[in-house]
Amino acid sequence: MTDPFKKKWVIVGLIWSGVFLLTGLNTTEISRIVHLKRTAEVLQKDREFLKRHHRDIEAVLKRAASAYQRTASARLGLLSVETRLRSLAGQFGLTKFKMESRPDQNGESGMVVNIFFSGPLSGAMQWVAALEKDYLYLKPRKLKMTLRHPDGPSDFVFSCYYRFRPSVPEDTG
C-alpha cells in the first residue's frame, strides 16, 4: 500500500472508532435517562397514592401501633390490663375474676395470660367482643367454658397473648 492510502485508512479507522465510541456513550446515557425517567414516574405515582390514601395509611399504622401496649414494665402493664378487664367484666355481670400470666419462651415482648371468671354466656361473649375491639394487644387464643348448671352461670377460662413494648421515659430536663 502506498503512503497516502495508509494515511486515509488510518483517518477512516479513527473516524469509525470515534463513531462507535460515541454510539456506545449515547446508548449508555439513553439507558440511564430511561431508568431515571421510570424511577421518577414510580416516585410520582407513589406520591399520588400517598396523597389519596394518607388517611387510610395513618389508620392502619395507628391500628398496628395499638397491637402492642406501651408500658414501663410488663408487670405494670399487666396490672393496668387486669384492672381494666376486671371493671369490664363487672359491667357484663361476670364474677370470680382472676388473671394468671407466664412469660413467653420465645423471647418476644409478650406473654400468655389466662383469665378465669364466672357468669352468663351472653355476658362472657359481650366481654370477649369488647376485648377484641378495644384491646388489640390482647390476642385471643382460646375460650373454654364449663357449664355448672343448665340455668346458672358457667365458668370460663379465656386464654390470650398479651403483647407489650417497653416505653422509654421522655427526658424532661
Number of domains: 2
The string of secondary-structure elements, in order, is: HEHEEHEE
What is the typical, i.e. mean, pLDDT?
85
According to CATH, what is the topology of the largest domain? Alpha-Beta Plaits
Structural class: alpha+beta
Shape: rod-shaped
Q: Quick one: biggest sheet?
A: 5 strands, mixed
| Helix content estimate | 40-55%
The CATH homologous superfamily of the largest domain is termed: Ribosomal protein S6/Translation elongation factor EF1B
Tell me the layout of helices and strands.
Blueprint (H helix, E strand, L loop, with lengths): L2 H63 L3 E3 L2 H18 L3 E9 L6 E10 L1 H14 L3 E10 L6 E13 L7
Can you give a write-up of this model?
- With 173 residues, the protein is an alpha+beta fold.
- The chain has two domains: 1-65; 69-166, 2-Layer Sandwich (Alpha-Beta Plaits).
- It has three helices and five strands, in the order αβαββαββ.
- The protein has helices spanning 3-65, 74-91, 121-134, and strands at residues 69-71, 95-103, 110-119, 138-147, 154-166.
- Strands 1, 2, 3, 4 and 5 form a five-stranded mixed β-sheet that branches.
- The protein starts with a helix and ends in a 7-residue tail after the last strand.
- The model has no long low-confidence stretch (mean pLDDT 85).
